[in-house]
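User: My advisor, Dr. K., asked me to get a structural model of this assembly before our group meeting. I'm new to this, so sorry if the format is off. These are the inputs:
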Amino acid sequence: MLSLSRVYVRFIFVQYSLYIDRFTINNFTEVNNMENKVYLVTGIAGNLGSSVASRLLADGKKSAGSF
Amino acid sequence: MPKEADIFVGDVTDTESLERFFSVPANTGIVCIHCAAIVTVNPDYSPKVYAVNVQGTQNIVDMCTAHHAVKLVHVSSTSAIPELPGTSPITEVSRYNPDLVTGYYGKSKALGSQIVMDAVHNKNLNASIVFPTGICGPDDYAFGPVASFLIEYCAGKLTAGVAGSFNAVDVRDLADAIVTCTETGRKGEGYILGNECVSMKQMFHILAVQTHTKEVTTILPSGIGKIIGKASDIAGRITKKPQRMTSFAVYNLVRNNNFDCTKARKELNFKTRPFEESISDTVAWLEREGKIAVSDKGKKHE
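Assistant: The format is fine. Below is the predicted structure of the whole assembly, which you can bring to the meeting.
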């Protein structure tokens, strides 16, 4: 199912810096001692991108408990 | 907006803005979720669609490679996967060939998906691809096909449908699966994210129940729909104005929409809520936004 939407022509990115406790991240070993992950989400002007962003923020709240 | 979140305005076709987007503090693992795309039912080649969906994806892949991203989840589309005959379940494929799919949007998504897969194999990029079907659900401020369909239906503008089916998944379920994919999605693997097929007749019935309107019962044969689609294509080329019922839009209705999500259910814990719930929530949201008016007897009693 496709839409013709000029809204998607605008490209707005959101850069999430979710400083999640390392022990909450399942694949932390791949990060090799990196303390933080940054989630870069493109296309938050669209419904999907904004929903992903909302979901990440909700996860960040649960995991970090700081915002 | 929490202090941990930044909004960055940029352009996937502008590598300079992407460099700034990907500039993160040292000792930080980048997880990129690439949702940006132009979605169109115009079946013809478009330089803008190519620039964003193909070159933009190449730019994101290049950035992820250069900045040693921990993970890339690329949002493609089931339009990038070749159709199978009849109602044979369509499953994931390992290569994406634009010549095997219909409509320029599908071709652009096939090209973008192959760019990601090439980077997995040639540059050791840890990437997974998700392939959503149609997207539905509330808060669609782009007013995509399902929202537009609902608005037109409630305005009484839809007096007939085309024999075919919808396969649309709730955006909230998609978001859950995509975020899970950043953690459990396997490198170089694709995941179809779809829903149950709903026929046009079922769709009209659901809408009639949800909005307490008279059910539309006229369903045109697919052949008539295809003629309307071709006529819309011609009208679009002459008037240079976007058309809704293009040949590609009709194709998406009458094609085999039976997508198999078994892999995503197993590996991404992908779950879908009932389609009726998505429509109900979308109707409620459109009403709050003042886009539709549902009669009092159609409202839910709380």
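One thing worth pointing out at the meeting: The mean pLDDT of chain A is 56.

User: Perfect, thanks a lot.
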